[in-house]
Amino acid sequence: MTQGISTARADKGYVAAAVAAALAVILMFQPWLTASGPNGRLRSDAFGRIDGATRSFDDWLTDGYSQPNISGVWAVLAALAAVVTISAVLMYLRIRTAALSYLVLGSALATAMFILADLLYLSGKAPELRTIVQSNHGDGFGNLLGLFLGDDTARHSTHQVATAGLDPAGMLCGAATFGGAVTAIAAGLRKHTWYTLRPVPVRQRVNALPPHDVRDQRTVITVA
Q1: Contact, 166 vs 123, CB < 8 A?
Q2: How much is the pTM?
Q3: How many other C-beta atoms lie within 10 A of the C-beta of residue 123?
C-alpha cells in the first residue's frame, strides 16, 4: 500500500516536471530582454534573436559599430533538456524503470540550470542594447545645433534615460523550470527511498522459558 502511494506521488511529480518543461519551450520564443530609450526599442528572445526599431540603428552600423551578438547556446541546451524531460516522462508512464526515473530527474535539473544560465547571460547583454537605444548617432549635429538655437525639445531629448532588463516571460520560465526540477527531485526521492524511510516494526525478544517439569524440580542435598 505504501509503495502504491509513493509511486502515484512520483507520477504526479514527474508529470509536473514535464508540464514545466513544455511551458519553458513555449516561453523561450517570447521576449526575454527588452531595451527602450529615446531612439527606439529592441527586444531579444531566449535564443538571442533581436527585433524592434531604432532611429539610429542603421547609423550605428555604418559608423563602424558591430551589431550586438547574443548567443543562443544556453537556450538551445535548455530546449534540448526540456524535450528530453518531456520524452522521458512519457516513456516512464508506460515503462516504469529506474533508469527512466533517474533520466527525468537529471533532465529536469539540467533544464532549470540552463535556463538560469541563459537568464544571467542575457542580463549581462542588457548594457549593449541599452547603448543602442540611447545612442545619438546620425542626429548628433542636429542636437548640437538645437542646443545653440535654444531648441528645448532637442535639449531635453538628450537627457532621456534608456532602460534595459529582463522581461516577465524569462522570469516566469525560470520559476517554472525551477519548480519543475524541485517537484521531480522530491518525487524521485520519495519513490527511491521509501524502502529505507518506512517504519520497521520492532519485535520484542522473548527468552524461551525452560520446561515446566524443569522449573518445578528441586535439588535436595542429604548430609549423612
Answers
A1: yes
A2: 0.71
A3: 15
Distance CA 161, CA 176 (A): 32
Which amino acid is present at 127? P
What one-character DSSP code corresponds to residue 161?
A: P
Q: Buried (b) or exposed (e) across 168-207, using 16+ Cβ within 10 A?
A: ebbeebbebbbebbbbbbebbebbeebeeeeeeeeeeeee
Non-local (6+) Cβ contacts of 220 within 8 A are none
Going by the DSSP 8-state scheme, the letter that residue 172 receives in this structure is H
pLDDT tens-digit profile of 47-94?
A: 999 887 666 555 555 554 556 788 999 999 999 999 999 999 999 999
User: Could you tell me which of 26, 40, 8 has the C-alpha nearest to residue 137?
Assistant: 40
What element of type H or E holds 36? strand 31-37
Sign of CA dihedral 83, 80, 24, 49: negative
Pairing type for strands 163-166 and 31-37 reads antiparallel
The three state secondary structure string of 55-80 is CCHHHHHHCCCCCCCCCCHHHHHHHH
Condensed to tens digits (0 to 9), the pLDDT of residues 66-77 reads 567 889 999 999
